[in-house]
Write a structure and sequence with these properties.
Elements (H helix, E strand, L loop, with lengths): L5 H15 L14 H13 L5 H9 L2 H4 L4 H8 L1 H9 L8 H14 L2 H14 L8 H18 L8 H14 L6
Helix pairs in contact: 1-3, 2-3, 2-8, 3-6, 3-8, 5-6, 8-9, 8-10, 9-10
Length: 181
């Protein structure tokens, strides 16, 4: 896949993600699901300060294998193996029971390169963006999930992902629900 402008791949990923998620809504039942991968991409670029087109495209496409009819080969054909490999590493195998699925997913994320770690961190950051409107139980669940990913990444966070890790870790610390609340 040869392109003169590497950001053309990012622009195509925006359109692809919008089409792939077109009939899906976020858990609030109102927000188009595509808003999530778009925000994840914006977090990578504007919060983490990373402008690598592979990371940006992977951020946009990170839920397409897991949540749509898109498969790995579709992504390789349109966006190249680097992007497809990142997205595959960010995709849970929904055929597995939940505990096994989560364990396998963590192994995939940890085995991925720095771009996978950055996308996972941006995904967690975005998933915390609606924290204040969640019930206390929802807040605890969301914080627990993001904290679990941080704990898994902490021992071996790639150098390129350390600044992003610090940003997400600070966000989690600022959102901790005080004991007794």
């Amino acid at each position: 896949m040869e392109q003169v402008n590497p950001f053309a791949r990012v622009a195509e990923a925006v359109s692809f993600a919008a089409r792939a998620h077109r009939h899906q809504l976020r858990k609030d039942g109102h927000t188009p699901y595509a808003a999530h991968p778009f925000r994840v991409c914006l977090v990578v670029r504007h919060v983490f300060g990373i402008d690598d087109p592979v990371v940006l495209a992977a951020a946009l496409l990170h839920d397409t294998i897991e949540d749509t009819t898109t498969d790995y080969d579709d992504l390789v054909g349109r966006f190249g193996a680097e992007v497809a490999d990142c997205v595959a590493a960010l995709s849970k195998d929904t055929r597995l029971p939940e505990a096994e699925r989560e364990a396998a997913y963590l192994r995939q994320v940890l085995a991925g390169d720095w771009r996978v770690a950055v996308c996972k961190l941006a995904d967690g950051y975005d998933n915390l963006s609606d924290f204040r409107v969640l019930s206390p139980a929802g807040q605890a669940k969301q914080l627990g999930k993001v904290s679990e990913y941080l704990d898994a990444l902490r021992p071996a966070v790639p150098p390129e992902a350390r600044p992003a890790f610090g940003i997400v870790e600070a966000l989690v610390s600022s959102l901790r629900v005080p004991a007794g609340r």
